[in-house]
Design a protein that fits this description.
The chain is built from one helix and 14 strands, in the order ββββββββαββββββ. With 133 residues, the protein is mainly β.
């Protein structure tokens, strides 16, 4: 399950439950201590990254590990936003002014890539050491 601070609330996506991988999504408001369910993710996700409504990688599916989906509060939908260069699973992310870096992970332990807001993905930097779980 991934928690991300999103405009004064937390967006909680995916995870793994007793019955397998989850597609769930919800918003939690820590001030009011209330939550609201969102439409489910298009596919199950766990050990993914989530930054400001951008959900990338995760799951056992190779196709899911190579995609990102974006939450649109205006339309109330999830849409595929990016196709990644590398499979990402159990990776970390780093938000910068120029985009979100996806770094390492079980499928690509010494690589990174930058996911940009215009829908493009560019090669990032190489890692000296494996970055895996």
């Amino acid at each position: 399950m991934i928690f991300s601070f999103f405009l004064s609330v937390f967006l909680i996506t995916g995870g793994a439950g007793d019955n397998g991988e989850l597609r769930s999504a919800e918003i939690f408001n820590p001030v009011t201590k209330t939550s609201c369910s969102l439409p489910q993710l298009p596919e199950t996700r766990f050990w993914h990254s989530e930054d400001g409504g951008l959900v990338c990688g995760g799951s056992h599916s190779d196709a899911t590990r190579k995609t990102c989906v974006k939450w649109s509060p205006a339309s109330g939908t999830w849409t595929q936003s990016h196709t990644l260069r590398q499979k990402r699973y159990a990776h970390v992310s780093w938000v910068t002014a120029s985009g979100v870096y996806l770094i390492g992970g079980s499928s690509s332990s010494r690589t990174s890539e930058k996911v940009k807001s215009d829908g493009s993905v560019e090669e990032g930097f190489s890692l000296k050491y494996d970055n895996t779980m």
